[in-house]
Amino acid sequence: MIAIGQLVEAVAPALNAAATADLIWWSAASLYDWAGEALVRICQLSGAMVERTDIPVAAGSAAYPLPPRHLAVRHVSLDGAALRPANVAEMRAFDPAWDSTAGPVARWLTDVQGLDTLTLHKIPQQPGTLSIVFGTHPPEVDAGSLVSMPAVCGDYVRYSVLREARRAHGHGQMTDVAAHCTERMKLYEGIFGSYWGRGQ
Amino acid sequence: MATAGNIVDDILTRLDEDPAQPARYTRDQAYAALNEGQRLFGLLTLCVERVLPLELPPNTVWHHMLSYAPDWIAPLRAVCLTSASTLDTGLWDRAMWDTLAWDDAHEPAPAGRYPVRCCQLRDLDARSRTWQLARDPRVLHYGMAGADLAFFHPVPAAAGTVVAYTYAALPRDVAWDWEVPEIPAANHQDLMDFGVYVLPINAGGSEFAQGLHLLNDFLDSAAKCAEYVRARSKSLGYDTLPFELAKFDRSRLIGQVQRKAATK
Are the C-beta atoms of residues A119 and A95 closer than 8 Å to each other? Predict the structure, then answer.
């Protein structure tokens, strides 16, 4: 569990301030924004945060909205039975009328309507429960946020905030500290990816 | 073996500070540096192991491991402790009494301890589309999605099944002078090096560049410890091995700032 308020306050001394309230060149709001961006980035790169949600399925309805903040769908099942991933090109090759065929559901697609819709094939004929396991990222963070990720992700976030603060102060220039923070972040990204991402 | 107080005193002394009354850095900052070093060392080497006896709630396939173990990094091994089993082995939902798949036992198993094999979601999907509906007091497989979402197959229909999870944990943070860091005692010196490198990051410039070789020493020690842990983990058949630091390009991490400082 990462306490974002505590983490951002710990960055303040590195920016020559006793607390975020004493910052001169930066604002506490910017620091929280950068912390939020770092959390999103680490979730995108390493797939650290995975959640599962249940969605009721209605007979005759094939399209369902994906949960907010989803990054990637990892597994879909209907009433406990796993469905297979597919894409529109594949489905068209199988059957030109694939999107109007009703029957037992066996596949799921995410490339039918934009990025936020999951489509079932075939169109379900009876109600059920769709379970989606998906990669996600935390919502926007503030001083009171508690993020359910391993505590070591907080170190990554701290280096990311420090890097962005240094770059902002240097008018976008990469100072030596900012460059070093970038490399430290890459080290963490490699480790997280090996344990929680590709390594799985 | 050094206590946290010894390490913090050493870090501050090496930075030309009076440990009793430091001027540029506070003792809290030195403690934070020490804890960060411990976390990075633990993450790189997976040297801290703990066992979590997890009693599986009935009919629950998915679990968030951070809610059971806040210091969770990755699973190493799982063993199922059960009182009885009526195991059914199958492939594509058909009983398969004459073939062994994945070394599954194909007889009703007696009570005892059984290894739980690590697998991926796609392995279970290939085995049976309805694997999430399988019920048995003896858990055969487990796997992870992301940092902490774990799944089990099959899951018990009643209470009484315990999965003893051996997992790689983050070392506990130290906050008091008398506490001893959890990483191996031989590597406590590396925490001092890490602290001396990391505190001047705030200042940047040549002081920061001068301390960078200490990060290199720290990573060398972590790589050596990880090598030992990797060999040990392989022989124990653990499911997660330490990160291969040898494959990480350190030249930019260490050399870039040093080169820049040298040309100034």
Answer: no
B187 near B225, Cβ under 8 Å? yes
* Residue in B204, B209, B253 closest to A187 by CB: B253
Residue B263: Cβ-neighbour burial (10 angstroms; 0-12, 13-18, 19+) = exposed
Identify which of A81, A177, A195 has the shortest CB distance to residue B130.
A81
pLDDT at B109 over 60: no
Residue whose tokens read 């009328």: A97
Name the amino acid, one letter, at A107. R
Instruction: Please judge whether A195 and B147 are an interchain contact, meaning their C-beta atoms are less than 8 angstroms apart.
Output: yes
Answer yes or no: do A162 and B120 touch at CB < 8 A: no
Report percent pLDDT > 90 for chain B: 67
ipTM of the complex as predicted: 0.91
**Tens digit of pLDDT for each residue in B219-250?**
999 999 999 999 999 999 999 999 998 888 88
Cβ contacts of residue A80 below 8 Å, gap of 6+?
Answer: A131, B130, B132, B133
Chain A residue numbers touching B64 (CB-CB < 8 A): 148
Counted across chains A and B, CB pairs separated by less than 8 A come out at 128
